[in-house]
Amino acid sequence: MSSKQPANSLRQSLKARHMTMIALGGSIGTGLFLASGSAISSAGPGGAILAYAAIGLMVYFLMTSLGELATYMPDSGSFSTYGSRFVSPAFGFAVGWNFWYNWAVTIAAELSAATVIIKYWFPNSPSLLWSFLFLALMFALNALSAKGYGESEYWFAIIKVATVILFLVLGVMMIFGIFGGKPVGFSNFNLGGSPFHGGFFAFIGVFMAAGFSFQGTELIGVAAGESEDPRRNVPRAIRQVFWRILLFYILAIVVIGFLIPYTNPNLLKTDLNNIGVSPFTLVFEKAGLAFAASVMNAVILSSVLSAGNSGMYSSTRVLYAMAKDGLAPKIFGKLSSRGVPINALIMTGLIGMLAFLASLFGDGVVYNWLLNASGMCGFINWLGIAVCHYRFRRAFIAQGHSLDELPYRAKWFPFGPIFAFILCIVAIAGQNTGAFTGSKIDWYGLLVSYVSVPLFIVIWLGYKWVKGSKLIPLKECDLTMHERPNR
Fold this sequence. Notes:
There is one protein chain. By secondary structure, the protein is mostly helical. Helix content is 67%, strand content 0%. α5 packs across α6 (146-175). The longest helix is centred in the N-terminal third of the chain and has 43 residues, at 30-72. It starts with 15 loop residues before the first helix and ends in a 20-residue tail after the last helix. This is Gamma-aminobutyrate permease. It is a multi-pass membrane protein. Keywords: Amino-acid transport, Membrane, Transmembrane, Transmembrane helix, Transport.
């Protein structure tokens, strides 16, 4: 950090390699290592590939939209700031609090998951102990500096990326018979005469799971506010999103589909309590690597800690930015001597302590409750990106600017944000189709799955009613680029 940076500002200390690994590691986690198995089991390898490809395309457009916004106006408030400037203060208020709640609760969910995973080695240890230790680690990394977060996330991502690359190389060698015996051919991939199984609702279910798997890629927008050179580093990281999705998710599902029949009952058991039957573990064991379960357990542990670490960083920054913009209590706008929003960090950490409930009610129960409480919020965040980018680009043109002024331009506008918006709506509406398809409507399931939507609308309209907030005309949207640091 330059000594010329004022003490009352965030530090632009995230380097290019940090931004790259935040982008690379953002969507690699339990969605790939665990959920991919149940996706193949439900819809077959073809259905799983199609669902992940559709969501992947949507995420690509969302990331290019966010890339255009974040390179033109890098800001740690990201979603809240863009919503307030390009839509309305009420929309920015609702999106900001939705984002904070989403990732603050995710910390608790990931801590609960970590306690389940660690018990693979220490089955009789107390959940309270592990929740406290992991939360303390995340808090310390974030309290140190933005660079502390970036450095830890860099190494977390390295572990995940290396595991996936090893899996793909080994899997391809097994498919062609170079390693582990004879070539497998298409017998597993085309089992039953088609790679598609389960019908439409099975596909929709996988579509939802794929959406959860990719949540986290949007954190690059928050990190842009503390990047050394966002105009160069953010586009570089964004451009890798599509290839990352193609390589890590699509190819991994192809490898699993070729090597493991979708009828394998172990694919249905790929959850936190059954690490031994992660599809990655199954393939490694098929290759003769007896230690696969322990290794994958360690990798998945690093993944959930990475997700919790990222959640603490991003939710802290957004809460800080909202405080500076008058959308949250001013106390959360205080910075430590290291340029860390310390009060916002403490508040976010307190929400993470919800994970301590795991010691009272059981790890799996708490984890599933917390995950359901925050999952829908991620899709709402993505909707916010699409709406903000669409409004920004129209305001940019309406105010007489040329597209040549943009340091990074999202391709296929307006198709990109409109396509992403429609798919997000489909994903939200289809969140729990099972609640409607039975003989009776599952009202409890509906409540758990959809409660975030009316809550968001109430916050949005409530602020609008209290403050008299209105939609900002395109020619009045604030396109001012402040000199950095802008907080």
